[in-house]
Structure formats: structure tokens, C-alpha cells
Design goal:
Layout lengths: L10 H29 L9 E2 L4 E4 L4 E3 L7 E7 L10 H13 L8 E7 L7 H11 L6 E5 L2 H11 L18 E4 L4 E6 L6 H16 L5 H10 L6
Parallel strand pairs: 4-5, 5-6
Antiparallel strand pairs: 1-8, 2-3, 2-6, 4-7, 7-8
Helix pairs in contact: 2-5
């Protein structure tokens, strides 16, 4: 009987196969990452920084803290009840946003709206309660809060990074701002305008709702990759 000789790979062939393997190991992840960045199969809002913690008093006269909205997707703005002609109408905008957000399919993600008064001297809980009724706030998901002037400065000036001048007795000038904070207490979007685009706000609420929905299981890796590769909406 004759036996068929076995073919033994040469050293050169082994080296070539090893080189090809390393090429695949190095190149494939790079190509995949570039494809992820270019096509952005998942979009997220940036994790900007931690939102300020606070302890204030709401329109019901109750203590209201940042922990009370833990787990909620919360939109903040600033205002005061004696805001007259020419004052940014942040309360009217918040009412419109709340109505629009209530029509979205956010799954089990609870939402909250917080208007911080920068006029604690005149905006007592009673006055804030009356103001909330005037602007059509529901009193539960939308809170009007205020507190000690120095604490307000820390929250609004240092924490939210916007300007207001409480030394003006009658009309308090301020730069309108809306800040979207997720359930982990992280700022996810800042809108420095008196009237942010409603479609943009609805989109941003939906983006965070989807991220929360996919925060467990294998899908969370895709969302972490989206943060890593800065897959943010334009």
C-alpha cells in the first residue's frame, strides 16, 4: 500500500497566516467603529455634567429637593411671578412643553417640570400656588419652588450656569434657560433661549426614554458605544 504524504505548513506560511490574523484583529474593530460613527445606528444626548443638588420649598409649602425627582426626566427653568412685559415667558413655554411631552410614548419613564423662582422675597408658597394656577400648572408633576437667595445663586448661577440680577427690586433681569436632567441627576441638554424648539425638546425626551429602556441587557453596549463615539443629534 502506498500512503499519501501529508502537507506540512512551512514557517513562511505560518508567519503569513499569523499576519493575516493580526490584520483581522486590528482592522475589523476600526472599520466597525468608523461605520458606527458614520451611520450612527444609535443616537444619544451627551452626558454633560452633574446637575446641582438643592433643597427648596414648593408652592404647597413643602420641602422639595433634587432627590424628589431622582429617577425622573426633569426639565428645569427659572422665572418669578411678578415677571411683567418684556420678561421671558418661560412658564408659558413650560406649559406647552408639558402638554407635548404628555403625548409622547415614554414607556415607564416618569417626567417632572420644575420652575425656580428667583424672587424669594415676594414669591411665598401662597403666591407661587396662585401663580401656578394662573399659568395652568398641574401642581404635582410641575412644581414652582424657591428658597434662600444664596442657595438660589449656587443652583442657578454656578449649577445651571446662567445669569440673573436679584438686586433689581421691580424687574429682575435674567437669561432664560431650560435644562434637561436625567434620572441619574446628569444634565443632558441645555437650551439657552426663551422659546426652545418644541420638536427638538420632544426628540430629546424620546432619546433619553429609549436609552433608559435599553439600559439593561446587551443593548446597553450599543448605547455606551454611542456615548464613546459621540453619536449626538445635529
Amino acid at each position: 500500500m502506498t500512503s499519501q504524504a501529508e502537507t506540512v505548513p512551512t514557517w513562511h506560511e505560518d508567519k503569513l497566516s499569523f499576519s493575516r490574523l493580526w490584520y483581522i484583529v486590528l482592522v475589523v474593530p476600526i472599520v466597525a467603529a468608523l461605520a458606527f460613527v458614520i451611520f450612527q445606528p444609535v443616537q444619544v444626548l451627551p452626558r454633560i455634567e452633574l446637575a446641582p443638588g438643592y433643597s427648596l420649598v414648593d408652592q404647597h409649602g413643602n420641602r422639595f429637593t433634587s432627590e424628589d425627582v431622582r429617577g425622573h426626566l426633569t426639565l428645569y427653568t427659572i422665572t418669578y411671578s411678578h415677571c411683567g412685559a418684556g420678561c421671558p415667558e418661560t412658564s408659558a413655554t413650560m406649559r406647552t412643553v408639558q402638554t407635548a411631552v404628555n403625548e409622547l410614548s415614554l414607556g415607564d419613564l416618569p417626567t417632572a417640570f420644575v420652575s425656580i423662582s428667583i424672587d424669594p422675597t415676594r414669591d411665598t408658597p401662597e403666591r407661587l400656588a396662585e401663580f401656578a394656577r394662573q399659568v395652568g400648572a398641574d401642581g404635582e408633576n410641575w412644581r414652582f419652588v424657591t428658597g434662600d437667595p444664596s442657595h438660589l445663586k449656587q443652583i442657578i448661577g454656578a449649577g445651571f450656569g446662567t445669569y440673573y440680577d436679584a438686586t433689581q427690586a421691580d424687574a429682575i433681569p435674567f437669561d432664560p434657560i431650560y435644562v434637561l436632567v436625567d434620572g441619574w441627576g446628569i444634565k443632558r441638554a441645555v437650551y439657552r433661549t426663551g422659546a426652545p424648539d418644541l420638536e427638538t425638546l420632544q426628540r430629546d425626551f424620546m432619546l433619553i426614554a429609549r436609552e433608559v429602556e435599553n439600559s439593561e441587557g446587551v443593548n446597553r453596549f450599543a448605547y455606551e458605544a454611542a456615548h464613546l463615539f459621540l453619536c449626538y443629534p445635529s
